[in-house]
Amino acid sequence: MLKVVTLYAGLLGLFYVYLSVRTIGFRRKAQISIGDGGDQGMLRAIRMHANFAEYTPLALVLLVLMELQNSPSGLLHALGCLLVLARVAHAYGISSVQAPGKFRVGGMAGTFTTLVVSSLWLVSGYLGLV
Length: 130
Description:
Layout: H1 5-30, H2 40-68, H3 73-94, H4 101-126
Helix pairs in contact: 1-2, 1-3, 2-3, 2-4, 3-4
């Protein structure tokens, strides 16, 4: 049974719903049903939501595979926490024109770190190195 990754999947699932509701609210307020209507705020909301949907599922699949291979729970918690913090930081960094770019960059760096470390761990496990 998956005991570690389920926590992070649940937290990220809730955050995805938040991003979805936020984007829907922005659409209603701006009266834009499809696309971004040339509105920079709408474009940011769309990209924030889409970026989450593009990266988070693969990261979670990799973490699930790690847990199924009985990887150390400390490593799983570290990567799960990093992924949650990275996704929140990225969303904050892209959310407004005034938001600091370092959060967006840091969020992607944390996401890529999770993807790379988990991928390397899985390949190493397959090769019998860990």
